Amino acid sequence: MTYPPSVLGGAQGRLLPLSIPLRFFLPAILFQIVAWALIAVDPDQATTFVGGPGPTLAAVHALTLGVLVMVAIGASLQILPVVTGRDLLALWPCRLTFWLYVPGTLILVAGFHSVDLATMTGGALLVTGGLALYTLVTADVLRRTKGFRLLVAYNAAALLALVALAGLGLALALDFEHGFLVDHLGVAIVHMILGVFGFMGLLAMGYSLILVPMFALAQAPSERLGWTVLILAVAAIVVAVIGALWAGSVALILAAVFGLLAAGLHIGVLVQVLRRGMRKRLGLSFILVRAAWGALAFTLLLSVAAAAGVLGDPGPALFGFIALFGWLLTFLTGILQRIIPFLAALHAGKEGRTPPRLSELTVETPLRIHAGCHLAAVALISVGLLLEAAMAVLIGALVGVVGAAAFAWFAVDVLRRMGFSWLRVPAEQPGSDK
Ligand code: HEM
């Protein structure tokens, strides 16, 4: 598998208009602020969260749909054509995905916050429509891709999880009004497993095999290890789903063991890649990526403790928080702060301008504030959840808001330094609206 350096070769020829990935990245940056703020709205409910509508569920989806999936959509729509060499069928489905998914997420989060069932259902339908379109666009590229079997497998497994979690999410929202689900809690846990480990987890693992070597200027890791990780991860998800619905805590613990094996191998392989990389100084972004890898291992250990019942009442909320804010959000903000200036530089080069160095596009101060506040917020809220101390959760959430605002400052500053040329809609790309 000879990805990274060669990936860049074809990159400029397959760049989408910058407004396509940015129309997902910019709302994600705002939703990050909203997610932390919604935890601060009702820290008592967050401290004892075991499901059900309200500010905490709104915070969970401001993060999961508003940040994690939002960035995954924007990034994969751009990275897939570059890596596979296959253009998207057309650009209008990407724009339509935006017009369904972003307002839908806003409405769904508002519905969860206000506990308004009609608003929840309306938002859930729009979001599901947007996710269905995104799934069709990317599945079409995967179908036409020759080679890159490992990336295709990770992406296809993630899309399957996305379809299932969206269907279950819709059912859960409708169940609040119609009460047709036999085991609402079991379905909610399956929904969470497919969202956190299925779609986001598999996508993060699959794209890390390309992005980490690319940023470290290293050769990609062996394909055989990549397949082993994928098989262990999918086995973990399947066994966890069986555990959540039927088999109970023994299966959940077995799933966590498979997950730990997959995560351990995945992280081990990527740490080797970083060691072999020509670029040693990867800066703050990879301090966050390494912290996220640590949080992933800690999440899986927590899931064993939670399934064994040794964490008591705070167990489920603590597990969910570390998985979402500790692992996935830390990883994503680490990668996103490299992707945004990287894309900006590629586009500047494409417009015939001398591509600026990443250091010319990136301001360190807001990134330092973000990293410090983010890690402090994750630590404070984790302690608050464990000790059921709402004040620690409140302070942590407010520190999280400051960190997210600093991240927004960084992103807007990169776009300002680019000189908002990306707002201009360029001539259509290959594969455009037929
Ligand atoms: C179509 C999009 C989605 C809809 C309609 C939706 C809907 C819901 C609903 C109604 C619940 C409440 C279940 C309850 O607590 O009674 C829920 C819980 C949850 N969802 Fe989603 N969701 C969606 C997408 C996602 C995604 C993409 C993720 C993760 C990446 C996610 C993660 C979670 C988590 C962690 C919970 C809490 C689980 C629990 O309550 O125990 N959701 N979702």
* Strands, total number: 0
Helix/strand/pairing category: mainly alpha
Per CATH, which architecture?
Answer: Up-down Bundle
How many domains?
1
- In N-to-C order, the SSE pattern is HHHHHHHHHHHHHHH
In CATH, what is the homologous superfamily?
A: Cytochrome c oxidase-like, subunit I domain
CATH class: Mainly Alpha
| Coarse shape | globular
**Share of helical residues:** over 70%
Oligomeric state:
single chain
- End-to-end distance: 34 Å
Report the C-alpha radius of gyration, rounded. Answer: 20 Å
The set of bound ligands, ions and cofactors reads: protoporphyrin IX containing FE
Report low-confidence residues grouped into runs of 5 or more: none
Residue fraction in strands: under 5%
Task: Count every helix, treating DSSP H or I runs of 4 or more residues as helices.
Answer: 15
Walk me through what this model shows.
The chain has 434 residues and is mostly helical. Helix content is 81%, strand content 0%. The protein has a single domain (4-419), classed as Cytochrome C Oxidase, Chain A. It contains 15 helices and no strands. Protoporphyrin IX containing FE is lined by residues 51-52, 57, 60-61, 64-65, 68-69, 124, 127-128, 131, 165-166, 169-170, 172-173, 184, 188-189, 191-192, 195-196, 200, 320.
Structure summary:
The chain has 434 residues and is mostly helical. Helices cover 81% and strands 0% of the residues.
